[in-house]
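Reproducibility note. Readers wishing to regenerate the assembly model reported in the main text can use the exact inputs given here. Chain order matters: entities are listed in the order in which they were concatenated for prediction.
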Amino acid sequence: MSTWAERLDGPVWSRMRDARTVAVAGIVLGIVAALVALPPVTARSPLYPVLFGIAAAVLGLSAALRGARRPGWGAVAAGLLGITLGILATRSSTGNLNLVFTASLIASMFVFSTPLVFGAIAGTFSERSGVVNIGLEGMMLMGAFWGVYGADKGGSWMVGLLVAMLAGGLLALVHAYFAIHLRADQIVGGTAVNFLALGITGYFFFQLYHGQDVPVGVSTIPDMKLPGLEHVHFLNQAFGDLNLMVWLSFALVIVSWLVLFKTAIGLRIRACGEHPRAADTVGINVYAIRYGCVVLSGVLAALGGAYLSIGFGGGAFTDNMTAGRGFIALAAMIFGNWRPFGAFGAALLFGFSTALAYRLPAYSSSAATLFQALPYVLTLIAVAGVIGRTSPPAADGKPYRKQ
Amino acid sequence: MTEQSGPEAAPPPTPEAAAKTGTLAARLALRQRSGGIIVPVLTALLAFLLGGVIVLATGHNPLLAYRDIFNGAGLNWIFHPTTSTVDNASYNLSQTLLQTTTLILTGLAVAFAFRCGMFNIGGQGQYFVGLYVANWVGVSFPGLATFPHIVLGIGAAVLAGAVWAGIAGFLKASVGAHEVITTIMLNWIAIWIGTYFFGDGGPLQNDQNKAVPISNDVASSAKLPVFWGAQQLQGLHVGFFIALAALVVFWAVLNRTTLGYEVKAVGFNPEAAEYGGINVKKNLVRAMAISGAFAGLAGGLDMLGYLYHFGVSDIPVSSIGFLGIAVALLGRNTAIGTGIGALLFGALLFGTTHGLQSNVIQPELAGNLTSMIQGLVVLFVGADVLILYVWNMRKMRLRQRPAEAAA
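Running the prediction on these inputs yields the following structure tokens for the assembly.
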């Protein structure tokens, strides 16, 4: 196949030769197949989703036959799913569709995905350095409580964020000490950290607020009004009034990608996660890198937690406030294959599915529940290796012993 | 067994050195010499001590708090089992044992997988599917006689738990998916399935009041007989003896059957087991399924024993499956240890919440103290190097004295 393909060496065609790219294009077409039937396009004929879906399946099939089997079959699946969802959408009333699929759905996707982005990036740092962090949930919970406590007593959301970062970092330090120094099982340690955080936050919430709610009027993280978007209604509704933390999460993704994959320190981090012995041999302090990454992980996860309490939570705290978001963040990290942009994409997908779940009761509550469970089902499928193969860092979870 | 290292080898001064000289084998040997009981006991003591420090730091008297929790759990019943003045004690103890029943089984669920080298973090999800299925069977066949109805309900719950955990075992055996990730995901899927089942318009929602997301009560023919206390007051049901029997079964399967031998061999060293002709993949699936069967049984007994119904709002409150992790780890994944651990955490669970009558510490605080102790126990058990280091410091001082005398 290379003989004729080599003659076509234009930039576009050389990309087309790559079966993976074809598969990705197929997946995109599969998503489009569902989207054409939804607002703002709202195609009313089932023909359009079917056409796009078939195109996606064909691209996927061709990619699968040319070697990119997993992404190829993924595109085929996306095409079929797109057809199904698209046809379902064309059958339901435009009024209902307009109620659910508005531009504010995108804004609400960001609301739900932001804590996941922070958590997933946090997990990426820790696991890239070789320490499994199942304690994300607990670190987020610490951030949620101590964030609102700091904002309440310190009088400013900035104090809240600092206190949250400190609390998350401290809990992460405990995890790091047990995982790195004592070489305890990291999964057991992470589980312990989750229980510990649940107890600590619940205990001090009751102790410090005497069983009352956090008083109203706590300083909260501000929203960012984007100027100049007022005339573009759709964009304005989607991006015009997002919380500062949402924009910070976007920046975090880019910065983490740069740090992890474009700098020397990132190379060191990844070396510790892939082959700590080799890293040690060339003079990298594996313990220091791992400590740094785990603590950073706690700090970032706590920021995600603080967003829950003093971000869109409006300055309130409830027991076990994170309610499993740390585990969805963990799932997003795995789904995103331990890469910042992958984790970001997964967090957006999971956030979207949650946002949808909050609007779907208009249709049926069982469909809403389905979308709540979707992140977990997708991650289960992903780790099962049906669509793409997730590959954790080679030394992830293995304690390192200096020689 | 004499000391292999000999008196010349200095006792390990730091945790690193302890692990350097002591590989896993050495650590195990040390554990054997300490009778296997030192680490769990020290772990629990240290956890209670640190919990007490927090209680003290927040202005409560830890000794009085622990005394009230002890009484709240009904453990003071032992001192006066016949006196009617402490009627509460007998009721509290029956409630503690009710929690113990469940914890024994969710603990065994974790322990069995551990013995095969896997961490089953999905006891909660397996417990939930057991609950759901038992509720469905209990509600669905009201005409059945008591005994077959109960057997059917519990059998279905066991099967459901086994299948739910078996998915994780199968994924590990077939594609190598890490059981921790898959069981966490299965937990949440089970939670949302429950939300769907009991929720608005779900298949298991009650038929009287569609506004309430709660299931029907199971038929009276499916309810387990109560032998201590009254059924209306959530007395202790015969499932307690089933849980005790499960401990014996756990021990017998692991120590007296080929299955148990194979499971342990895979747990010790999968490569060696494979080389020795043991089908590792088959054992991974099998161990996970058995492990899930214990958790499913826990769900079945809870449903038919005292809950009778379940609702959407009960789901996030339940953490008994996760508590099984602490129970199993503290019990060193043995039958006796799990039994004792279950009693300890059962007492904590009831004694810090519903049973607690105290002017020293409120149940809201004490309940969270349980979570903290649970976390500390799991943390310290995971790091037996630390515990052994603390233990060794004592020995070191004893040894240094004769060495100084000789010098």
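We highlight two features of this model. Chain A touches chain B through 52 residues (CB under 8 Å). Chain A has two domains: 2-98, 103-383.
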